[in-house]
Amino acid sequence: MSDLKRLKKIEKAHIGFYSIGLEAYWQQFDGLYDCLISYNKFICEHLCQYGEVYDFGMVDTPLKAKSAGEYFLKNNVDIIFCHSATYCTSACVLPVHQIDMAPVIILNLQPAAEMAYDKTSTAQWLAQCVGCPVPEISNAFERAGIQFYVVSGLLGLSETPSFSASDEITVGRPEAVKAWSEIEQWCKAATVKRNLRYSRFGFLGGYYSGMLDMYSDLTMIQAQTGIHVEVLEMCDLEKYLSQISSSDVRHKRAQIEEFFEISGDSPSDPIACKPTKEQIEWSCKVACAQEKMVVDHGLDGLAYYYHGNNGGYYEKIQSGFIVGYSLLTAAGIPCAGEGDIKTAVAMKICDILGKGGSFSEIVAADFNRNTIILGHDGPFHLAVSKGKPVLRNMGIYHGKKGSGVSVETKVVTGDVTTVGVTQTRNGNLKLIISEGVSTDDPILMNGNTSTHIHFQLDPAEYMNRWFAQSPTHHCSLSVGKNADLFQKVGKLLGIESVVI
Q1: Which of 11, 61, 81, 254 has the fewest CB atoms within 10 Å, counting from its CB?
Q2: What's residue 399's pLDDT?
């Protein structure tokens, strides 16, 4: 099954980078500056794999620090890596981050695993004592109220510079691999930060009345993530529906047949039946209108819900929602039902990172299999599906108005991570994260997505700990072990994160 083309590209993170040293050293020790700059270029080349890098070079005086801060500010960087190349006074570092307040990561990457103690000169030692200024910088940052993080380990060079007396070939060593894995995660988290900051989310319709956990302060969403929320009405969607041609519908039908399997009747649930030809055609037409609305409004995500009058036209429109919103989710525009914009944000985080991000909730526990069943009757992310999802006709949208075609499938087996976005009593967003393993166990054939997840805790203890964090009842389901990555996203966004 081929991938759906993304409707909007993911913007690369703007990564600020500089090395630090002490100007007095350069006249005292020939070759030291050039060696440290070679380390700078090595790191810069690696960072370029993860974003658009703005390398200031060497900062070795307070005046240069001010220039570096202005340089990063001008280039609107999302994160700044400070490479501790040798000893440097903290006065040469602090001004950078008083001017540009982007999150800062100190790179404490030693070139050699050990120094050649019998032949290392002072000049060569200065290229190895990279951890020396980090405590001083940390103290200055703390007293100035600047949040910082440190990555320590080995540089990971594949050859030793002629300047060095030590063996600096450390590529492949666990201390280098781990450090560069952390750096990559910080860059990916910065990518999330940048894309959220420039995102536009639609909010279509209203909330499911009485779901108090769904209600969100849209100003709070923008203040803490940068996301602009465009409030939309059903008449906005209806306008696009009236523009759909028969050729649009045929194209969408071909797309749906490529990505979905159209089911027969459910063997177990009388309200989950084979979709009629008319229902599929209507879902195709609505899906075309949904895509046009998203493109026309420049949306990066969407939360929706509509409670219509019995037999009303808008109720008929919403009966075709789920298939189109599943296609949009797979095309990089995550869509969350029941007006849950907080979970749409969680889904967007997963999608930016290439980890899927499917609309889910805790359905039940299977105490015999020691699993929690997660799923929902709303949009599903095709990228995390085990095989082709099945389309079934839901004769009743349980607890909601109307009926229509829904998606039934399970998540691909293997490592998964759930991330929920909730709101605390003080109005702050919070990420709730847990890692587990998706298993290939039986699911209901009722037109809902669902899958069994085995978490490290037994089902009762897991649910107790998850519920204790006051989540919403939805979350985003991603593929892979992503807890560390999601935590870094939270840190860069200034959002608390908790791992269950």
Answers
A1: 254
A2: 47
